[in-house]
């Protein structure tokens, strides 16, 4: 009898906890006409992951503030089956505008877009588009260029480390823009890259950063989803540049700034278009000018005169007089890849698969 | 002597990344030695990570944080022990469920503290400490004598576990239960009690391993902080042939392999990183083949591993 009681208690505890952690869906009360649009979000991580998904969820909350009802499914694995199931759940809840926030959701989102022509879709960071499916992403490389200026001004050893996730154009583009930013103020500095082969693994990210710091870099930049590289920099008395959103608290003695996304810029714009009835499938890729991406405000640790240089470059990028990827650009071996004065097209930048001169490291196969 | 300094720093990092896994391997060995295969290592680590982090933030006391982490891991192990020892449930399924359960609990608890920072009092206690004089020895100075308290604790616990299992009467009981619980029972050993004690101890160590990651190695909350370390530990239990001393070697070797991945990128040697990720598992398979072929007695898994013990069927 006693055993039974314990078993029931245990089961009840498990069920309760599971119920608490597995929540999905969020109800906003709104009775106006534009609430006919119901937005659904498919997330790769948890809304409180303190990183990528949390940054997206801030965008969702901004949509809710517009009086639009939203639902979300979090922690969705990057398989076609899981993606489709998550999207089906959202459609069953009545969503007619669905966002999926990770590259791995592309295939599943595309299939669902074909199966549900009455629903509008948008997929983040991919390249598949349909009549009812957009793509969206931020030109964070522009913010990275500014971050490069900050690092180039600060480094004393002219030796900067960069912890990178995977050898794909999105990452390579960022490394290149960052390096060009560094070189714009400090032509002698080099940027050494280490690839971790993971977007999210705090231990691995810190270990990779420590390896770079052991080799003598005095600044760590990152294309990773946790603050672990920043913690490593602080521990070794170096400086760091964050990614995704401001994280000054994670490494207060090391944090210079961060290259950030402001996802609400896209989400509110896109939902507004759906409400107005002007929504069409598009390839949304905006940067500093639209405030889709931005550089976090500089901390006091930055070198003197940095703010002025950053402001000037930011202004020039926004008014179009400065495009970071303008020739002459050389690859690592010194071959000229882009001729003097030629601006790379968005398409070329999107598909970039070579490192500019000054980057140390090889792109993994 | 720059090269020696570099090697020392490399080993220092490798040992730090191996340490949480060392805790988990030793915890897993204690559990398997009483015949219980616990696949819940990852879950118990995560529970330890989240409770350790929460208590560290709430109290600012490093010792309390460690105790809370261990207790959380042990609480997970208690669920497991109740189901597999007392109710004689399937160990594999229970272990898997414990991992899923622990991941969920950790995400929930972590969500409440995700914006918190580890207070100074805790993070400074867990910082690497350079031991005077000794830390000037080449290589060993960085690798061994500039480490944090958890690294030392891990070493001490592994050695203690070895003596406990192999040199004490209690350890003899434990091994007897793992080999043949019926015979152990007949000789008057309280099988259930020893199973509970070891499974809970194992859970305590797994919890500590998780807390090392969240409170000492990282100091900010990261969801799913172990990212599979528990599963590597499950594989390395076999690699170390259920011997806590070899576990030290296994854990540090794993840390080195992963570090080597980044080092080699600097040397521009091209080995796919996926290959290095596979290595611990390949090594485990090779060890499994070896112990199956050589039949050396001290390298075999506990005979009753994975089997529930029914007293009435003796």
Description of the structure:
The complex is a heterodimer of chains A (365) and B (314). In chain A, 39% of the residues lie in helices and 19% in strands. Chain A has helices at 2-21, 52-65, 80-92, 106-115, 140-154, 169-185, 202-215, 228-235, 264-276, 306-318, 346-350, and strands spanning 38-42, 69-73, 97-100, 120-124, 133-138, 159-164, 190-195, 219-223, 239-244, 255-261, 283-286, 293-295, 329-330, 336-338, 359-360. Chain B is mainly alpha-helical. Chain B has a single domain, classed as ABC transporter involved in vitamin B12 uptake, BtuC (Orthogonal Bundle). Chain B contains 13 helices and two strands; from the N terminus they run αααααβαβααααααα. Chain B is globular, with a radius of gyration of 20 Å. Chain B starts with a helix and ends in a 20-residue tail after the last helix. The model of chain B has no long low-confidence stretch (mean pLDDT 91). Chains A and B meet through α1, β7, α7 and α8 of A and α1, α3, α4, α10 and α12 of B.
């Amino acid at each position: 009898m006693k055993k039974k009681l314990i078993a029931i208690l245990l089961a009840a505890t498990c069920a309760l906890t599971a119920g608490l952690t597995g929540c999905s869906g969020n109800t906003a009360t709104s009775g106006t006409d534009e609430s006919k649009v119901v937005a659904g979000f498919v997330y790769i991580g948890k809304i409180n992951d303190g990183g990528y998904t949390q940054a997206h969820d801030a965008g969702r909350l901004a949509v809710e503030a517009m009086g639009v009802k939203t639902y979300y499914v979090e922690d969705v694995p990057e398989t076609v089956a899981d993606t489709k199931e998550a999207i089906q759940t959202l459609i069953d809840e009545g969503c007619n505008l669905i966002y999926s926030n990770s590259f791995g959701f592309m295939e599943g989102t595309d299939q669902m877009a074909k199966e549900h022509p009455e629903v509008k879709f948008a997929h983040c960071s991919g390249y598949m588009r349909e009549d009812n499916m957009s793509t969206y992403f931020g030109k964070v490389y522009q913010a990275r260029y500014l971050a490069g200026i900050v690092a180039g001004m600060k480094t004393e050893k002219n030796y900067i480390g960069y912890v990178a996730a995977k050898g794909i154009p999105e990452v390579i583009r960022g490394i290149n823009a960052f390096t060009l930013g560094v070189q714009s103020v400090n032509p002698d500095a080099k940027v050494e890259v280490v690839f971790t082969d993971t977007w999210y693994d705090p231990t691995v990210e810190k270990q990779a950063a420590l390896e770079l710091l052991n080799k003598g870099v005095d600044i760590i930049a990152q294309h990773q989803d946790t603050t672990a590289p920043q913690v490593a920099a602080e521990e070794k008395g170096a400086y760091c540049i964050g990614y995704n959103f401001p994280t000054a608290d994670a490494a207060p003695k090391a944090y210079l700034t961060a290259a950030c996304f402001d996802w609400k810029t896209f989400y509110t714009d896109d939902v507004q278009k759906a409400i107005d009835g002007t929504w069409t499938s598009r390839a949304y890729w905006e940067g500093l000018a639209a405030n889709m991406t931005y550089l976090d405000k500089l901390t006091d640790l930055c070198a003197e005169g940095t703010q002025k240089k950053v402001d000037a470059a930011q202004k020039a990028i926004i008014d179009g007089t400065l495009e970071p990827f303008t020739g002459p650009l050389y690859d690592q071996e010194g071959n000229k890849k882009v001729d003097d004065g030629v601006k790379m097209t968005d398409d070329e930048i999107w598909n970039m698969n070579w490192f500019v001169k000054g980057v140390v490291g090889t792109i993994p196969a | 002597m720059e090269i020696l300094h570099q090697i020392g720093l490399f080993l220092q990092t490798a040992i730090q990344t191996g340490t949480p896994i060392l805790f988990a391997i030793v915890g897993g060995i204690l559990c398997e030695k009483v015949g219980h295969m616990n696949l819940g290592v990852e879950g118990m680590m995560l529970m330890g990570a989240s409770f350790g982090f929460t208590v560290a933030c709430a109290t600012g006391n490093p010792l309390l944080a460690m105790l809370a982490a261990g207790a959380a891991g042990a609480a997970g192990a208690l669920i497991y022990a109740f189901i597999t020892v007392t109710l004689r449930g399937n160990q594999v399924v229970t272990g898997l469920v414990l991992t899923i359960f622990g991941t969920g609990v950790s995400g929930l608890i972590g969500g409440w503290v995700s914006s918190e920072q580890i207070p100074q009092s805790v993070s400074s206690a867990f910082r690497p400490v350079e031991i005077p004089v000794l830390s000037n020895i080449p290589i060993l100075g960085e690798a061994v004598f500039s480490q944090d308290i958890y690294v030392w604790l891990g070493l001490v616990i592994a050695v203690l576990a070895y003596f406990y299992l192999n040199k004490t009467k209690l350890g003899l009981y434990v091994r007897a239960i793992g080999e043949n619980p019926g015979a152990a029972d007949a000789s008057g050993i309280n099988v259930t009690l020893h199973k509970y004690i070891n499974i809970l101890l194992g859970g305590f160590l797994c919890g500590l391993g998780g807390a090392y990651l969240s409170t000492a190695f990282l100091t900010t909350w990261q969801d799913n902080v172990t990212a599979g370390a528990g599963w590597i530990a499950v594989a390395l239990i076999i690699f170390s042939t259920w011997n806590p001393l070899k576990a030290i070697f296994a854990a540090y070797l794993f840390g080195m392999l992963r570090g080597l991945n980044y080092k080699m990128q600097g040397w521009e040697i091209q080995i796919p990183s996926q290959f290095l990720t596979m290595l611990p598992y390949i090594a485990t398979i090779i060890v499994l083949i070896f112990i199956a072929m050589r039949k050396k007695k001290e390298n075999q898994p506990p005979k009753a591993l994975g089997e529930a013990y029914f007293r009435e069927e003796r």
